[in-house]
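User: I'm writing a short methods note and want a consistent example. For Inosose dehydratase, I'll paste the sequence; you return only the structure tokens, no commentary, since I'll be parsing the reply automatically.
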Amino acid sequence: MFKEHAVKLAIAPIAWTNDDMPELGGENTFEQCISEMALAGFQGSEVGNKYPRDPAALRQALSLRQLEIASAWFSAFLTTEPYQATAEAFLKHRDFLWEMGAKVIVVSEQGKSIQGQMTTPLFAEKPEFTEEEWIRLADGLGGLGRLAAEKGMSIVYHHHMGTGIQTAAEITRLMEMTVPEEVSLLFDTGHLAFSGEDYLEVLRSHLPRIKHVHLKDIRPEIVDLVKQEKLSFLQAVKAGAFTVPGDGCLLFGDVFALLAASDYTGWLVVEAEQDPAVANPLEYALKARRYIKERSGL
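Assistant:
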């Protein structure tokens, strides 16, 4: 299906230890996390809060397990803070990822975001950007994209629940306000489905801009509960709204077919934040790896 050596598989550490809620998986060590990733058959990882930030130390730990770094999340505040503040933080992040051999930098606008607020209703209080904020965001992302290009890297924008770029319409507008040479897209199945979007249509519409993929499934009964009970994003995670591919309701065979037909190259990253005390990380990593093998041949 995919061309040989075109695609690599990674898994995010958020299944072992949660950056937004450190109490989830607080007992799980960095070494356990990356050892179980390798044991489950993955080639790479994104970066979590327990990972060493010294490139030499991180490379040593990863090389023992034949793992690479695919990327890492960066929080931008382009709509709420001066551009220079975000750019300075971005340069440090860029240089760290470049040292680790990553080609893409995951960027998400966190100005006005409610994703980290424990009691703010996810749908009822979804943030919206003003016209001025849209312009600041698009211009700022272009600037970050140019900084990434200095190192031969690309930024991939992460649409996300609880932020100003969540819906299909918002993704389309952002892509129209930016240029492909500066801003690419991260495609996340779970966040689109959670938002109520047609994730396959979003994939078809933006294939040329997609340079990074997060594979995340949802449990529709929990998503319905989140809406009915006006739960927050973090409460949704704790309740089990997300799960790994093959354990929810999404059609990943169609996702893989569309990506392969477009000659996608890059990383496919399993990212499904759950409470590791409820969903054993290694068990779910193995489940995801088997499912991806069955549906994609990878």
